[in-house]
Amino acid sequence: MWRIVVMLLIATVPCGCGALSFVRVTINEPIKPEEAAFIVPGQTTFHDVVKQLGAPSEIKETADGAVGTYHFLDVKYSRVNFGWIAQFWLPVNPDFILSRGRLGTDRFEVWFDRAWIVREYAFAHRSSAPSFLPQPF
Amino acid sequence: MSRVHEGRRMPRRLRLVWCALLSVLFILLTDCAFNRGNIGEEFKSEHVESIKKGVTTRAEVVSLLGAPDRILQANSYDIFQYYRYDVKAGSLLLILVNFSRLNIKSDDLYVLFNRDGIVEDVVFGRRTGRIEFQFWPFGE
Predict the structure, then answer these.
(1) Which domains does chain B show, CATH number per domain?
(2) Can you give the pLDDT at residue A109?
(3) How far is A93 from chain B (nearest CA, A)?
């Protein structure tokens, strides 16, 4: 659901009518590996994790416990309108737009046993930071 | 005294440069926008603190916080999840270039119930307090 919300929000962010546009959307702040280094599987509890990292975005049941997932998102959108300059000498305002959006997702997952003690944790999808490049081809 | 004041005054050439720079900025700056949006109601601290482990019932939680956004089951617990999103967007729209940045952060509240429908645990994470307006999309 939150992905749909993000897309709607991106659509409503004003891009203006300039020749170049750079838009960025971020959801929450990514957890760095050093911030998760305090977690000791078999010892750290759910409460310890929440105290340090905040509540997870999602909790799901697994066969032998539960998994807490922290979601992060970083969207970079850039657009260049090569037709923009022509508006100064043409009677119409032509558009020739190249644009590209890049979505970087991060997920940090912590698995708990039935007593809410951490079994293991992992960065499920460590994405490389997307860049601004309005080149769709 | 007048000497001191003269010493603090900006040299005339520098003032002219500043005026020219400000004029250019005002010519280039066509629009500036700040937008804000919310999904869900803000969690009141007194509501969260009034949920007592081993005492508060499921019905009392619902009357306090409303119906949960999501109901989960994990480790033999029923879990009510309440969430809230806060969005702050800033845009700097110049004649040639536009910059926009939209920051979204979430607050999540989990209330865990045992088989008898009594609160076993409350987990609350607040991130929206750190959200800020930005328009510069580059960097961290």
Answers:
(1) 31-130 (3.30.1450)
(2) 92
(3) 15
Long-range contact set of residues A90-98: C-beta below 8 Å, sequence gap at least 24: A98/A134, A98/A135, A98/A136
**Which residues in chain A have their CB less than 8 angstroms from residue B113's CB?**
none
**Does ipTM come in above 0.90?**
no
The CATH number of the domain covering residues in A26-123: 3.30.1450
Strand (E) or helix (H) holding B16: helix B12-28
Q: Is there a contact between B72 and A5 if contact means CB atoms under 8 Å apart? A: no
pLDDT (tens digit per residue) in B67-94: 999 998 888 889 999 999 899 988 888 8
- The arithmetic mean of pLDDT across residues A67-75, rounded, is 88
Which residue in A134, A123, A97 sits closest to A34, CA to CA? Answer: A123
pLDDT at B4: 44
Which among B87, B96, B110 is the nearest to A59, CB-wise? B110
Q: Are the Cβ atoms of A46 and B123 closer than 8 angstroms? A: yes
Residues on chain B touching A22 (C-beta within 8 angstroms): 97-100, 137-138
CB contacts of B123 in chain A (<8 Å) are: 46-47, 50, 55
**How much of chain A exceeds pLDDT 90, in percent?**
20
Q: What share of chain B is helix, strand, coil (3-state, %, to 5)?
A: 30, 45, 30
Q: Give how far B128 is from chain A: nearest CA, Å.
A: 9
